[in-house]
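Need C-alpha cells for this chain, all 259 residues.
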Amino acid sequence: MNPMAKAGVAIAAVVLIALVGYNLLPGRSTGVGGPAPTASPTVTPSAAPSAASTAAQPLPDGMLTAGTYVINQIDGVTMTATVPDGWRGIPGFGVTGPNDSDAPRGMAVIFMQASGAFDDPCHWDKAGTLQPDQQPGEKVVGPTVDDLVNDIRANTSYTSTAPVDITIDGHPGKQVDLQLPSDLNFASCDKEAGDTTGQYYVLTPPAPVYAQGPGNRWHLRIVDVDGTRLIVAVMDYSLTPASVQAQAQTIIDSITFSR
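Here are the C-alpha cells for all 259 residues:
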C-alpha cells in the first residue's frame, strides 16, 4: 500500500484502478501433560540482547520485520506496538497487513484522534476547501470517550454495535464496531483536491482516514490515556483471513502508551 498523501491520507493506486469508485487508505496456551521428553542437545545460551536491540524502533515506511515500533505520537503520547513479519509501516499513522488495506482481504491498524463524526461521511466538504483536515466542526462533541462513542453511534450512514468496556495498556475505554456501506457510490462523494475518486470520511479532524473499500469494517477502540482521548482503529473485511485478524490482535495486545 502506498504511503499516505494529501493532508496525511494515502491512496493505494493499484486498488483505485481495480476498484473504481472506492477509497483506500491514504490507516491484537496452556501446556498439557505428555510423555517424558527425550534427551536433547545442549545449547549454549546466546548473549542477552542489548537495550538498543530491544528498544522500540522508529516505524519505517514499507515492509517490516518483526519488532517493536513507535507507531505514532499524538498530543505528547507515544504509542508503541510489536508488529509481526510481513506487515507494512505507514509512519505517523499505523500498519497494514500482508494484504495491505485492500478489499476484500485487507487489514490495517491505525492510531488517530477525532473530534466527532461527520453527519454525512460522503459529503464532508462543508467548507469547500477540498481538504478533509480543514473542515469546521459540525457540532460540539464533549471530550470524553462516551461523548465520541455516542456521536459515532448516532450516525445512520453505517451500522454500529453497542459499545463494550475495554482497556489498552491499563487505560480504560470503549470498543464500537462499524460496518461501512458496501453499495455506496464513492464517485458521488466529495473529493480532495486533485483526486477523481470521492472519499467517505467517518470521523472529523484530526482523524486522517477514510473508507478503505467496499464493505470495510472499523473496530474502534477509543481510550482515555490520562486525559487524552485516542483511537486505535482496526480496519478489515468479512473475508480478511482469520490468521491476519489474529496477528492484528497480537498488535493490539502489545500496545503501550507513554509520555
